[in-house]
């Protein structure tokens, strides 16, 4: 058991089941979507399922260019590029849900919904800079953006749930938003603490005297070419990394997104 806790080989193989789950959701999203289905609901979900399936089958970790399969499909650059579209798409979906359920057109809720989209775009800038420069503290700022996104989502959802009474069964989506925030935000505090500790520990090795242009070019080449195959727990972020991969790519988030599609496409 102790050996298993130190090595994630079996876990990373089991993660591939998440690829099948996402493909199932992808196919059934197309079946649920009628000809007049809201594209702002269906398309972001489809992007998320497709990218999540890919990440489950070919998992990577940006820090130290860690991969499970040393093959052409395990690419830090390709994964990060596809994840950029996926993450913007999924937060746009959550933002759109708030707009749809904001039947009284409360302006601060509208503002928070668009702030979520702006924050996820800013987070993409931070994570790309982290990947290309190797500065670990930038991952902290990326994840801080995600924390703020779900603070906004939870706050707006709680208000809409408490003040709207005529949502025709769609209020369940607001309850799920609040429930997710209650569970996710404490976990994210732990995640941010871990990222901050790692950044401080590695701060002496992430600098350098090279110009920013050279560093970015070198980082881009590294993201495209370098693959470090590892299966030990530490290389994949330990328990926090494992929880993040399974919940975000394979189980909780895909199921939640599919349920959103199912509820909204039935109304």
Question: What does this 3D model show about the protein?
Answer:
- By secondary structure, the protein is mainly alpha-helical.
- The protein has one domain.
- Helix content is 75%, strand content 2%.
- The chain has helices spanning 2-6, 9-14, 16-32, 39-57, 76-101, 107-133, 137-163, 171-201, 212-225, 238-250, 252-265, and strands at residues 60-61, 66-67, 228-229.
- A three-stranded mixed sheet has the order 1-2-3, with no helix packed on it.
- A hairpin with a 4-residue loop joins strand 1 and strand 2 (66-67).
- The model has no long low-confidence stretch (mean pLDDT 92).
User: How much helical structure, as a percent, in the residues?
Assistant: over 70%
Low-confidence stretches: none
What shape does the CA trace take?
globular
Mean pLDDT equals 92
Q: What's the total number of strands?
A: 3
Helix and strand pattern: HHHHEEHHHHHEHH
Give the class from helix and strand content and strand pairing.
mainly alpha
**First-to-last CA distance:** 48 Å
How many H/I helices? 11
Gyration radius (Cα, Å) is: 19 Å
* Adjacency order of strands in the biggest sheet: 1-2-3
Strand content: under 5%
Whole-number tally of structural domains: 1
Largest sheet: 3 strands, mixed
Describe the structure concisely:
With 267 residues, this protein is an all-alpha fold.
Key terms for this structure?
75% helix, 267 residues, 2% strand, mainly alpha, three-stranded mixed β-sheet
């Amino acid at each position: 058991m102790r050996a298993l806790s130190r090595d994630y080989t079996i876990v990373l193989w089991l993660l591939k089941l998440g690829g099948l789950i996402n493909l199932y959701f992808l196919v059934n999203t197309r079946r649920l979507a009628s000809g007049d289905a809201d594209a702002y609901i269906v398309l972001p979900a489809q992007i998320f399922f497709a990218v999540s399936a890919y990440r489950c089958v070919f998992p990577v970790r940006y820090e130290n260019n860690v991969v499970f399969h040393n093959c052409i499909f395990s690419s830090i650059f390709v994964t990060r590029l596809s994840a950029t579209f996926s993450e913007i798409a999924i937060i746009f979906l959550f933002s759109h849900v708030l707009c749809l359920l904001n039947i009284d057109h409360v302006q601060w809720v509208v503002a928070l919904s668009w702030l979520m989209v702006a924050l996820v775009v800013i987070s993409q800038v931070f994570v790309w800079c982290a990947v290309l420069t190797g500065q670990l503290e930038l991952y902290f700022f990326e994840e801080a953006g995600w924390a703020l996104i779900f603070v906004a989502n939870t706050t707006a959802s709680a208000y809409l749930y408490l003040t709207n009474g005529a949502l025709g069964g769609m209020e369940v989506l607001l309850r799920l938003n609040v429930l997710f925030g209650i569970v996710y935000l404490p976990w994210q505090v732990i995640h941010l603490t871990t990222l901050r500790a790692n950044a401080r520990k590695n701060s002496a090795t992430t600098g350098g005297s090279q110009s920013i242009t050279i560093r970015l070019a070198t980082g881009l080449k590294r993201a495209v070419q370098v693959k470090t195959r590892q299966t030990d727990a530490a290389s994949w972020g330990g328990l926090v990394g494992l929880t993040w991969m399974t919940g975000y790519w394979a189980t909780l988030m895909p199921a939640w997104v599919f349920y959103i599609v199912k509820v909204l496409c039935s109304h």
